[in-house]
Amino acid sequence: MIKDFDIEDLLVDNEIHNEQVRLLAISIAEKIDDIESALRMMKQENTMLGVCVNDVRILADIIIKLTHDEIKKSQC
What is the model's pTM? Predict the structure, then answer.
């Protein structure tokens, strides 16, 4: 109901959402670590898959930074 809408509820929901996104990005980064380890063991770090792994790691790092910044902003 719109008349019962409270901005504090939105801030809490936003913080929860940001934390969930951050945890998902961390999980992605951990899986990328596993893939990189497997590629190293197979001595195929410089394959196209290795390049893709690096790209995904960069995206996960960006997501982590953006959500961290959003969480800090919402706490002010």
Answer: 0.59
**Amino acid identity for residue 3 in this structure:** K
Tell me: the pLDDT tens digits for 11-37? Answer: 567 777 788 888 888 888 888 888 888
Tokens coding 75: 């706490």
Copy the structure tokens of residue 57. Answer: 């790691």
What residues contact 25, with CB distance under 8 A and at least 6 apart?
Answer: 60, 61, 63, 64, 67
- Give the dihedral sign, CA 4/69/25/59: positive
Exposure on the CB side of residue 43, measured as CA atoms within 13 A: 0
DSSP letter assigned to residue 47: S
